[in-house]
Amino acid sequence: MAQLIDGKQLSNQVLQKVASEVDYLKGEYGVVPTLAVVLVGEDPASQVYVRNKVKRAKEAGMGSIEYRLDTETTQGDLNQLVAQLNNDPQVHGILVQLPLPPHLDEDEVIASIDPAKDVDGFHPLNVGALAAGQASLVPCTPQGCMIMLRQVHQDLSGKHAVVVGRSNIVGKPMMALLLQADCTVTMAHSRTRDIESLCRNADIVVAAAGRKELVNADWIKPGATVIDVGINAIEADGKRKLVGDVAFAPVSETAGAISPVPGGVGPMTIACLLLNTTRAARRQLA
Ligand code: NAP
After folding, report:
1. 3-state DSSP call for residue 95?
2. In this predicted structure, what is the pLDDT of residue 108?
């Protein structure tokens, strides 16, 4: 039976570190690290994510400001709000919750955020810095996955990792971080041929495809480490339930270590967002 990589427990450790960094910044510099979260529209999943982010920020002693904008918000109004937050010295991190309503240009909004306050790590300057192996604000979900992997592997060097999914927010930055850790990385996506045997050769599989229980036991080498990023809502026995991109029960029989859904990557993502906010606040002191 695989070792469980408990994202809840691990995220509490990260949040403790965040809380002590917040205390330090308050005590030493009189600075309250503050996160501004912008939500446009009524997307129910986004509303839950934003609520959790703001709640955790408060629990860690951070400042948080929530902006809930109407679905009809124009690009100009959103850009103006971002510009105002960029110029506000009391705000250290800015997060615009994605996805945005279709009439808004996500790339334009992301590019308008001050890279020093871009706690999601999506600004092209931060993306480029990560790809070049330079210090940057690193996207939260892959950052959380790396902390989880290091729980299992003290040394990732030379491990073969397969990342399933090539999105800008998960797959690509995950690849960059694994490369930085000296893994040999294979990126798989919807056009990849014989993805099962690629995964079967891997020491580490990170599943981020957004496809319910795509990865099954016959994709996994015995003893491999499996990180499940997927969040898929399903109906089971008349109830709404979240499942990952990995078929948890059968894969647990084969894998050496596995992260669950829920209680895996999700809480790590929020913890890393707050970690990024304290990092951003500290850098803005200079
Ligand atoms: P995305 O932008 O939709 O990208 C999905 C990726 O998976 C694409 O690269 C796609 O390939 C690939 N893919 C789709 N079907 C596939 C298949 N059958 N075989 C192999 N590859 C396949 O999704 P995302 O934003 O990266 O999110 C992925 C999942 O992670 C979602 O379930 C999302 O909800 C979850 N997520 C969780 C967290 C968290 O905090 N836990 C954070 C972010 C995302 P193509 O590029 O070829 O289309």
Report:
1. strand
2. 98
The span from the CA of 265 to the CA of 118, in Å, is 21
CB-count burial class (<10 Å; 0-12, 13-18, 19+) for 216: middle
- The CA 269 to ligand 1 mean position distance, Å, reads 15
pLDDT tens column, 13-43: 999 999 999 999 999 999 999 999 999 999 9
Report residue 286's pLDDT band, with 50, 70 and 90 as the boundaries.
confident
* Predicted pLDDT of residue 1: 93
Annotation marks residue 53 as catalytic: yes
Ligand 1 atom nearest 268 alpha carbon: 40
Angle at CA of residue 134, ends 7 and 283, nearest 5°: 75
114, 118, 120, 203: which is the annotated catalytic residue?
A: 120
| Token pair belonging to 241 | 């339930």
The pick from 49, 231, 245, 259 for probing ligand 1's pocket by mutation, whose C-beta has the most ligand atoms within 8 angstroms, reads 231
Residue 260's pLDDT is what? Answer: 98
Judge residue 146's burial from the number of C-beta atoms within 10 Å of its C-beta, 0-12 exposed, 13-18 middle, 19 or more buried: buried
Q: What is the mean pLDDT of residues 203-230?
A: 98
- Give the up-direction half-sphere exposure of residue 238: CA atoms within 13 A in the CB hemisphere: 0
Residue 231 has a pLDDT of: 96
Q: Take residue 210 and report the two structure tokens written for it.
A: 């957004």
- Give the bridge partners for 163, in sequence order: 187, 206
What residues line ligand 1, using a CB cutoff of 6 Å? 141, 164-167, 169-171, 188-192, 195, 208-211, 214, 229-232, 265-266, 269
* pLDDT on residue 135: 87
Residue 84 scores a pLDDT above 90: yes
